[in-house]
Amino acid sequence: MRARRILASVFAFLALSLAVSLPAYADSQTGAPIPQGAPAPQGSAPAPQGVKPLASPPNDAPISSERAGLTVHGNIQVGEEYNDNVNDTNRPKADMVTRVNPGLDLTYVGNRASAEVSYRGDLRLYNTGRRPNEMFHTLNAKGLLDVIPNTLVLDVSDQNLMVFRDIARGTPSGVDSTRNQVNQNIASAGLTLTPNLGERTRASLGYRITATLYGSRQDPDMLTQDISLDVMHELTDRMRAGFDIVAERQLVDQNGVRTVRHSEEGDVTRVTGTLVGNYAYSQNGSLFCRGGAIYSLYDTGATVVYPTWSAGLTHTLGKTTFTLQTDASYQNNPGSSSDIFQTTYVASMAHAFGRGTVTLRAGYSRYFGQTSHYDQDLTIGVDATYDLTERLKLTVGAHRAGWDENASARGNPIRYYGEAELAYQLPKNFSVKLYYQGKITPGRHTRQSGGNVNVVGIGLQYSF
User: Fold this and answer.
1) How far, in Å, CA of 218 to CA of 194, rounded?
2) Residue-wise over 177-210: b if at least 16 C-beta within 10 A, else e?
3) In whole angstroms, what separates CA 328 from the centre of its chain?
4) In whole angstroms, how large is the CA radius of gyration of the chain?
5) pLDDT mean over 340-351
6) What is the model's pLDDT at position 355?
7) N or C: at which end does the chain have fewer Cβ atoms within 10 angstroms?
8) How distant is the alpha carbon of residue 158 from its chain centre?
């Protein structure tokens, strides 16, 4: 399996290099900001909560530099819940589930190196054996090393989590069965050179290698290498413009199971060129846009050209923030041996008031490619938080996802989700919460599409 062999050798070297470098700067903990590696595209913005994020580089969030040295925070939660459909099928089986959820956050900030690690665990013990016991891990880790101050940066990152095999289903919730999910690990390393071209011009030349590995042999692993050039010029204090070019080579490891069935599958070479613009039209609003084309040449001989773009508008009126975003790019799809081209449109409104917040959001996605099992997805949702007292907090939310009410077993059925949580802060770093999670699948229930689920639980958490 070539992807795993190449990944093991490359990342072992990079991780060792970063680890060896950290102690060299441990005695110089000044807390000075560290130049960021692999800069995010200018104007990139986070997606609203509950809607599948738009495409972004793996290291677009800066590491906090509030405190120099090592900071450690952790927690562990234990609880018990009742689930009336533990297998999420059209033939419900109920069970009591014991949950153990550890969490750990580490942050290191030195003079020329920094690192962040965030881990969450989820152990599920089914009391009557209606479902096998499960253990899931979610990890986000990244590190930065300023190899040549303000000029050359090495960055490494790793993300491990459970994802749907069907990309259109978005992010799994706590009531979705893991039957349609697979463990995904994305490891990435990159070098970014940022030569000084003047006070108003920023340029970066980068190389990145990314491995996407799955915990199941039926889902092909991928190894991607790319070289990028990004140039931005500050036209005025409020306006910037530039361009970027990316050349990418993606290798697909079939794990000896799959064969290429379509011309737009398997190993591929891509070239992307885009023009970029940012404009802050006031203190309360800004917009960004990126547009161009992606040319793909598959080893099968097929060629595909798609327009690509990423644009957004953010505006704040008092305590209300409005956000519009759109994106068109290739996204990894675990269930196929090639990426899927996705166009996404997202709108959200967030309002903060005295003791709480309310967020409304809506998102629409469409998918293109010979290996997609469906072509559309619509998500609409609302979330709210309210502090009943200084210690007691209420959180509620509801959203709709999916597209086809009578979707086939491999389709994207309509689902309705709801959740409510009441959390109370106890003395000495303890807290307790009561919660409810539910899902309704109104269409034709199948083993793959799932059924109706209701979960009621209680948890006790200790933080340190």
Assistant:
1) 40
2) bbebbbbbbbbbbbbbebeeeeeeebbbebebbb
3) 16
4) 23
5) 95
6) 93
7) C
8) 11
The rounded distance, in Å, linking the Cα atoms of 189 and 250 is 15
- In tens, the pLDDT along 40-93 reads 333 333 333 333 333 333 344 455 545 579 999 999 999 999 999 988 888 889
- The CA–CA distances, whole Å, from 227 to 12, 201, 206, 245, 339 equal 21, 20, 6, 8, 19
pLDDT digits (tens, 9 = 90+) for 229-272: 999 999 999 999 999 999 999 998 866 544 455 556 788 999 99
CA 446 from chain centre, in angstroms, equals 28
Q: Residue 249 half-sphere exposure, CB side, CA atoms within 13 Å?
A: 6
Q: What is the mean pLDDT of residues 355-377?
A: 83
Give burial (CB, 10 Å; 0-12/13-18/19+) of 49. Answer: middle
The H-or-E segment that residue 312 falls in is strand 303-317
| CA-wise closest residue to 167 among 372, 432, 328 | 372
**Beta strands 268-282; 239-253: pairing state:** antiparallel
The residue among 299 and 324 whose pLDDT is bigger is: 324
What is the pLDDT of the chain when averaged over all its residues? Answer: 82
pTM, two decimal places: 0.79
Mean pLDDT of 418-424: 97
- DSSP assignment letter at 17: H
Q: In a 3-state reduction of DSSP, which class is residue 307?
A: strand
Beta-carbon contacts of residue 156 (< 8 Å; ≥ 6 apart): 11, 14, 15, 18, 142, 143, 187, 188, 189, 190
Amino acid at 304: V
What whole-number distance in Å separates Cα of residue 402 and Cα of residue 168?
Answer: 8
Collect all residues with Cβ–Cβ distance below 8 Å to 145 and sequence separation of at least 6: 17, 18, 21, 112, 113, 153, 154, 155
pLDDT at 35: 33
Asked if residue 249 lies in contact with residue 271, where contact means CB atoms within 8 angstroms, the answer is: no
Residue range 2-55+68-463 forms a domain whose CATH class is: mainly beta
Q: Are 271 and 304 in contact (CB under 8 A)?
A: no
Distance of alpha carbon 186 from alpha carbon 209, whole angstroms: 11
Say which amino acid occupies 397. Answer: G
Can you tell me the distance from the alpha carbon of 92 to that of 99, in angstroms, rounded to the nearest whole number?
20
3-state SS assignment for residue 23? helix
User: How is the chain split into domains, by residue range?
Assistant: 2-55+68-463
If we measure between CA atoms, which residue out of 297, 290, 234, 252 comes closest to residue 271? 297
Cβ count near 123 (within 10 Å): 15
Q: List all residues 6 or more positions away from 27 whose beta carbon is below 8 Å from its beta carbon.
A: none
What is Dmax (Cα atoms) for the chain?
68
Contact 75, 461 (CB under 8 A): yes
Q: What is the pLDDT of residue 254?
A: 66
Alpha helices in 341-445 (DSSP H): none
